[in-house]
Design a protein that fits this description.
The complex is a heterodimer of chains A (396) and B (127).
Chain A lengths: L1 H19 L4 E2 H5 L1 H16 L6 E9 L8 E3 L2 E3 L2 E16 L2 E15 L14 E14 L4 E15 L9 E11 L2 E8 L2 E10 L19 E7 L8 E11 L3 E9 L3 E9 L7 E9 L9 E9 L2 E5 L2 H6 L7 E12 L2 E3 L10 H12 L21 H4 L4
Chain B lengths: L1 H16 L13 E9 L2 E9 L6 E9 L8 E3 L3 E11 L6 E10 L2 E9 L4 E5 L1
Parallel strand pairs in B: 1-7
Antiparallel strand pairs in B: 1-4, 2-3, 2-5, 5-6, 7-8
Classes of the chains: A alpha+beta (396), B mainly beta (127).
Chain lengths: 396, 127
């Protein structure tokens, strides 16, 4: 009995502490959230268009039970309320000809800060900031050449902006284009005639999900990404470089990002996926916040990703995508699944999940070598001859 | 088929309603404040929310509340931790202004604030 009580206490104390010492979100982080969403959506689209075929489904929303977890720090003080992020995404491509696939993709995210965080019946308090971003596009893939082209629009809709935020245009439409040839892709985002961001990715790692290798040296090649952001009229353009590296068997990955020209180290992560399909993941992250100097500036955290639920504490993803939320456990109820050629995996994975079908085909191959390459098909209605054929032919 | 569609619709609706913790439905995200002036010699004329650096001010209750009187209830979105600035004038000559700034944790819902004491020491308590 005492042991159980002790166990409950041991679990409860860090959890309560993890909620009680949460830091409020700065209004500046909430105000600049739209650029983060646009970039994130395009990066996810890049990951999904590695194949350019099949489909993808994603949804998720943050789940914060306690009102002190994501308070807002404005010039007036600390406001009780919730940061929220609700997103869904879908992509599907069908074959229009041998080797040619045409598809449509739609990404949606509604996020911000409000005194209540429901998707339906929003509260829109005086200090709320609520916006949504819709990205859609058409894709074309040539399988034989391993080429994908895609283009579309990104619509920003500002639902509500409180008085503590700088003025923001209520709706903006950005255009984007994406081109991939084999392991290389280029992605651009534009506003009218002005470029907003440009990303060059070299996904050199060989992925069996897209017809690459399951193991061997080729799977240890790095994934490099260089993003160039337009700093606007009064800011300098900035560059962010990301290096993702398979460290062991496509289950253990290392990630590091650097900012150029002058900021240097931005973040690093170690990620472990028990299965290379990435349905379950564990990550430890370190992020430089750029607020103070030295080691005090580093934010150490981690997250557990369990297909339907993600639980994070000080993780770099939550810090960057949930308006600098830190010092508290953040749960996200989520689901995402990508499909290529009937095989399932999570976004970004190198290998599909082992499935019944693959086990079955392997078994078939092993035990019935005489069936190799042969297929038997039966379709339609089979008539059997009964009685005299003349009776049913040319009837009157 | 229609049943399945209705079921799907109900499921989607239910999941949309659950986008926040259910306890948030019962959360007070606004404050209804009423002040009672229980001082002996001060007339309350204004309560404002003042920014931490003191540069900007947002009015809350602007009403003359004589000693022993109560203000109207004013509803706002201030829920959290803020600095409130109280402005009084001397109840007798109505000229000497007293300004007092205090930090408050405001939990939301209906709040009844009592201002007590005199010009030399003013105290505040929620009742």
């Amino acid at each position: 009995m005492h042991v159980r009580l002790l166990k409950i206490l041991l679990c409860a104390i860090p959890f309560v502490a993890g909620i009680a010492f949460a830091d409020p979100l700065p209004t500046s982080a909430v105000a600049t959230g739209d650029a983060v969403i646009r970039d994130n959506q395009l990066r996810e689209i890049r990951d999904i268009l590695r194949g350019g075929r099949g489909g993808y489904l994603d949804f998720g929303f943050n789940y914060l039970p306690v009102v002190t977890q994501t308070q807002l720090q404005s010039e007036y003080g600390v406001h009780d309320g919730f940061a929220f992020r609700q997103h869904f995404a879908g992509f599907g491509a069908g074959a229009v000809d041998k080797n040619q696939y045409v598809g449509f993709l739609l990404w949606f995210e509604r996020s911000g800060w409000d005194a209540e965080d429901f998707f339906l019946f929003p509260r829109y308090s005086e200090f709320a900031a609520v916006r949504s971003m819709t990205t859609w596009g058409l894709t074309y893939t040539q399988k034989a050449m391993d080429l994908t082209l895609a283009a579309g629009m990104q619509h920003l809709n500002v639902e509500y902006m409180g008085r503590v935020y700088p003025d923001e245009s209520d709706s903006l439409a950005y255009s984007w284009a994406h081109a991939r040839w084999r392991h290389m892709s280029v992605q651009g985002s534009f506003y009218r005639t002005d470029w907003r961001s440009l990303r060059v990715s070299l996904d050199l790692e060989s992925r069996s999900a897209y017809g690459g290798r399951k193991s061997g040296l080729m799977t240890y090649l790095p994934n490099l990404e260089m993003s160039l952001y337009n700093g606007g009229d009064d800011g300098d353009d900035s560059v962010r470089v990301k290096w993702e590296q398979n460290l062991f068997d496509q289950r253990f990955y290392g990630e590091v990002t650097f900012d150029f020209p002058d900021k240097g180290f931005h973040s690093a992560a170690l990620k472990y996926y028990p299965d290379p399909s990435r349905m379950i993941g564990f990550e430890a992250t370190c992020l430089r916040r750029g607020e103070t100097s030295g080691s005090k500036d580093l934010l150490w955290g981690g997250a557990i990703d369990l297909l339907f639920v993600r639980l994070a504490y000080n993780s770099s993803y939550e810090y960057e995508h949930l308006f600098h939320a830190k010092g508290t456990f953040i749960a996200e109820i989520k689901f995402d699944l990508a499909m290529v050629d009937g095989f399932l995996f999570n976004r970004g994975a190198a290998r599909p999940a082992p499935m019944e079908a693959s086990v079955f085909s392997r078994k078939n191959k092993d035990t019935n070598p005489e069936f190799k390459g042969k297929t038997l098909e039966a379709s339609g209605i089979r008539y059997e001859k009964t009685g005299a054929p003349a009776a049913s032919e040319g009837g009157k | 088929m229609t049943k399945i569609r209705l079921g799907m619709f109900a499921l989607v609706l239910a999941s949309l309603c659950l986008t926040g913790c259910l306890s948030h439905w019962f959360l007070e995200s606004e404050t209804r404040l009423q002040v009672e002036n229980a001082t002996e010699d001060c007339t309350l004329i204004a309560i404002d929310v003042i920014s931490e650096d003191g540069s900007s001010v947002r009015p809350w209750i602007h009403e003359k509340v004589l000693p022993g009187e109560r203000s109207h209830v004013v509803e706002t979105d201030w829920v959290g931790k803020f600095n409130l600035r109280f402005k009084f004038v001397d109840a007798k000559n109505a000229k000497d202004t007293i300004v007092d700034t205090q930090s408050f944790e405001i939990e939301g819902g209906s709040l009844y604030l009592m201002v007590e004491g005199d010009q030399d020491s003013l105290t505040y308590r929620f009742r």
